[in-house]
Structure of Holliday junction branch migration complex subunit RuvA:
Amino acid sequence: MIAFVRGEVAALTLSSAVLEVGGVGLELMCTPGTLATLRPGQQATLPTSMVVREDSLTIFGFLDEDEKQVFEIVQTASGVGPKVAQAIVAVMTPDDVRRAITTEDVKALTRVPGIGQKGAQRIILELKDRIGPPVGVAAGAPAVHAGGAPWRDQVHQGLVGLGWSTKEAEKAVEAVAPEAGESPDVGALLRSALRALSKA
């Protein structure tokens, strides 16, 4: 099991980051909020979770250990694979996930693309006694302080990557633009955009 990866960020795509470790480029599947904190050429350390399938070996990278832990716990619910688990941590903070499950908030979970009413109820039923209470970790990703960070593109690409259409993503980006401020927190903006889309 690869517990974490430390290395120079060699490349970023819409859904992954390539970190160079000892001359080898490891591709880590990441949420838009995690990708927003990375810059090519800079050193990064990401906690990781490896998912082994018959035909593939995928490494998922996370903002912190808390996000990784929630990603791994939600996969123990039947019907939740790594893609849905990643969508959950992309849309909600770890504490939001714990809160939704412990308070049986079906509506909060159905905001995640790929989770319907029955799926949310099953997740709550199976994880309620195991997920634990919110721990009070700072909500969301740290603010990105890169001069004029292209948050619009990052949020837009994140939404499209989660299954929304280009048009829907554009509308949501416009809806959250007033929240951006001088140092946009891409993770928080992405969650706001997803909330706007789920209400639409």
User: Anything to note?
Assistant: Residues 151-199 form a domain with the Helicase, Ruva Protein; domain 3 fold (CATH 1.10.8.10). The chain has three domains: 4-61, 65-127, 151-199. The chain has nine helices and five strands. Residues 125 and 171 are 35 Å apart (CA to CA).
